[in-house]
Design goal:
The protein has 171 residues and is mainly beta. It has one domain (21-170): Porin (Beta Barrel). The protein is 9% helix and 62% strand. The protein has one helix and eight strands; from the N terminus they run H-E-E-E-E-E-E-E-E. It has one helix at 2-17; strands spanning 28-36, 45-56, 61-77, 84-100, 108-121, 130-146, 149-158, 161-170. Strands 1-2-3-4-5-6-7-8 form an eight-stranded antiparallel beta barrel. It is elongated, with a radius of gyration of 21 Å.
């Protein structure tokens, strides 16, 4: 009986010592959510992003690479016109993030990153279409309530909105 107890104790230590992080090398995660506020109306944005864990940085983290796509049906109001201008906006671009592994958790993932993308503004009666390069600077986190499913939130100067939240899932 003593040998069995010692075996169980050693095995439980080994399992806790090998605690996995939410995001590891080779992990693939996708986010789908809504965003806001932004400079063009109150209609929230729809955003989709994905990333893959690529470069371990020792015990302190992991670098990932991926991309983001965001869409908004925007609204702009001129002070001297009585009507609002409605037009579509679209953002897409690559991004890189550093995931913090300084704490052991298989439920939470904290990250921050940078990227660059292109914003395409649609056309309306008084607004001409335009294209512009836009930086992407963000910090965020994930809470995994199941092994491959969870919630995410991001804040920063990104795409078309300053705050994003939604669901996240892994492969």
């Amino acid at each position: 009986m003593k040998k069995f107890f010692v075996f169980v104790l050693v095995a439980s230590f080994a399992i806790t010592m090998q605690a996995q992080h939410v995001f590891n090398k080779g992990s693939i995660m996708f986010n789908a959510g809504v965003g806001g506020p932004n400079n063009f109306g109150y209609i929230p944005t729809l955003n989709f992003s994905g990333e893959v864990g690529v470069i371990p940085t020792g015990d302190i983290g992991l670098v990932s690479f991926g991309g983001m796509v965001e869409f908004q049906f925007a609204q702009y109001s001129y002070g001297y016109l009585s009507n609002n201008e409605n037009f579509a906006r679209f953002y897409f671009g690559p991004r890189a993030a550093w995931h913090v592994h300084a704490f052991d958790s298989d439920l939470f993932d904290a990250y921050a990153g940078v990227g660059a993308g292109i914003i395409i503004n649609g056309e309306s009666e008084n607004i001409r279409s335009s294209t512009e390069v836009h930086p992407d600077i963000f910090a965020g986190g994930r809470w995994m309530f199941a092994q491959k499913m969870g919630l995410f939130a991001e804040v920063g100067y990104t795409g078309l909105s300053f705050l994003k939240f939604g669901v996240t899932f892994g492969l």
